[in-house]
Design brief:
The complex is a heterodimer. Chain A contains 5 helices and 5 strands, in the order ββαβββαααα. Chain A is α+β, with helices and mostly antiparallel strands. A 5-stranded mixed β-sheet of chain A has the order 2-1-5-3-4, with helices on one face. In chain A, a hairpin with a 2-residue loop joins β3 and β4. In chain A, α2 packs across α5 (about 140-150). Chain A starts with a strand and ends in a 6-residue tail after the last helix. The relative contact order of chain A is 0.16. By secondary structure, chain B is an alpha+beta fold. Chain B has 3 domains: about 5-50, 2-Layer Sandwich (Uridine Diphospho-n-acetylenolpyruvylglucosamine Reductase, domain 2); about 60-170, Uridine Diphospho-n-acetylenolpyruvylglucosamine Reductase, domain 3; about 175-275, Enolase-like, domain 1, CATH 3.30.390. Chain B contains 10 helices and 14 strands. In chain B, the strands form 4 sheets. In chain B, strands 4-5-10-6-7 form a 5-stranded antiparallel β-sheet. Chain B is globular and about 55 Å long. The chains are: A alpha+beta, B alpha+beta. The interface between A and B is medium-sized, with 32 and 29 residues.
Chain lengths: ~160, ~280
């Protein structure tokens, strides 16, 4: 049983596919579902570039086996702002929070989940909430400002 | 990663049977195991996912004078739980510094113990609060104090076909004061160079749990009077045997252990007085 058929919902769309047991959720969304927004970077749960929302909570998709997600609901960065950019995404642009951009999908996914949990986070809460997402450009100040900006724009309905 | 058999048993009996296989490993949150598989530190022939075992819950519930934490409960739940925050704040604090938001949504308390890192953040708090581990195998169940669960780095008393089903905290009758402390190189997503928890009761009995200063998390007990001078502290800390590694030197660990134990005792005493 090194191959299993799983069914899950990804970005609102039901999917059924056969996966190898050694496939991570990250590998599956990138290679099998061709959703390449989620990035592979450290592959050990340090950097957060692969963050997706699994059954309502942000997780490192590099640390989840695809077979574990049978019956689950997954939202990747491609599933956020489908009908037009969310206030959070707009705020990232307005704040100039994007430098090389590699960490941004993970930042957006994590911050989206943060704002769903906490509609009015303080700067400290944003920093703590994003502490599992690394940015090698060092753009943390503007990234935090972008999240706070999305809050203070009064549009926390991300 | 190399492929392996994946099973998701629905009962403890099935789980035990599967885990008895050669090179079978148990999977809960996966935040340690999947990294270990990727680095080939663990090369399983079979992964046994315990998340559908009906007898293993994810509830945090009071049963009589015990708070029972189901082995599937993740760090996020501990941080959010009212009873944990009110009665066992040092455990809530310890859970809140494990990994990152993403890790805490997957990592289980039971898994943190089973991984048996000497630096496991929740172990010192559990030891200080006199928590026990509920274990079930084919021959029945047993309950052990957390400090007796570990046998070495990455090693526990678990037989290969045994699983942890719960972590149990005795709810104190009289008020207690407690504190958690941790030294790391950076603020987030880092393993502890030293971590510890301290619990003091109204009669002045003190229980410390020490992490990352020995091959396993350690229990150290004293009375408040014992800790009135430096000799008393030396006797308390004599059970530790810190090593030098990439995170800290042995001398630094020892120095930080003394300083932060003292501060934790002060904080716990203050909390006791305020209660």
């Amino acid at each position: 049983m090194t191959e299993k058929t799983i069914s899950l919902t990804v970005n609102g769309r039901p999917r059924t596919l056969g996966v190898s047991t050694a496939t991570t959720l990250l590998d599956m969304v990138r290679s099998r579902l061709e959703l390449t927004g989620s990035k592979e970077c450290c592959s050990e749960g340090e950097c957060g570039a692969c963050t997706v929302i699994l059954d309502g909570e942000p997780v490192n998709s590099c640390l989840v086996l695809a077979v574990e997600t049978d019956g689950s609901t997954v939202t990747t960065v491609e599933g956020i702002g489908v009908g037009g950019m969310t206030p959070l995404q707009e705020s990232f642009l307005e704040s100039g929070a994007v430098q090389c951009g590699f960490c941004i999908p993970g930042m957006i996914v994590t911050a989206t989940a943060l704002l769903e949990r906490n509609h009015q986070p303080s700067v400290d809460e944003v920093r703590e909430g994003l502490s599992g997402n690394l940015c090698r450009c060092g753009g943390y100040t503007r990234i935090c400002a972008a999240v706070i900006g999305a809050v203070s724009s009064g549009q926390t309905d991300v | 990663m190399t492929v392996f058999d994946y099973h998701r048993p629905e009962s403890l009996a099935q789980a035990s049977e599967l885990l008895a296989h050669e090179r079978a490993v148990a999977l809960a949150g996966g935040t340690d195991l999947i990294v270990a598989i990727r680095h080939r530190k663990v090369q399983p022939a079979m992964v046994v996912d315990l998340k559908s075992v009906s007898e293993i819950g994810d509830d945090i519930a009071q049963e009589g004078d015990t708070l029972v934490i189901g082995a599937r409960a993740v760090m996020r739940q501990l941080i959010d739980d009212m009873t944990v925050n009110r009665r066992f704040p040092a455990l809530a604090k310890a859970a809140s510094v494990v990994g990152s938001v993403q890790i805490r949504n997957r990592a289980t308390l039971a898994g943190n113990l089973c991984n048996a890192s000497p630096a496991a953040d929740t172990a010192p708090a559990l030891i200080a609060y006199a928590a026990t581990v509920g274990i079930t195998g084919p021959d029945g169940s047993r309950v052990l104090p957390v400090e007796d669960f570990f046998t070495g780095p990455g090693e526990t008393v678990l037989d290969r076909d045994e699983v942890v089903t719960s972590v149990r905290l005795p709810i104190p009758i009289s008020p207690m004061g407690s504190a958690f402390a941790r030294v790391t190189r950076r603020r987030g997503v880092d393993l502890a160079s030293v971590n510890l928890a301290c619990v003091i009761d109204p009669s002045g009995r003190v229980r410390f749990g020490f992490g990352a200063v020995g091959p396993t998390p350690l229990l150290a007990e004293a009375t408040l009077d014992d800790l009135g001078d430096e000799d008393g502290w030396s006797r308390l800390l004599a059970i530790t045997s810190p090593i030098s590694d990439v995170r800290a030197g042995a001398d630094y660990r020892m120095a930080m252990l003394r300083v932060h134990s003292g501060r934790a005792l002060q904080a716990a005493s203050k909390e006791l007085q305020a209660s």
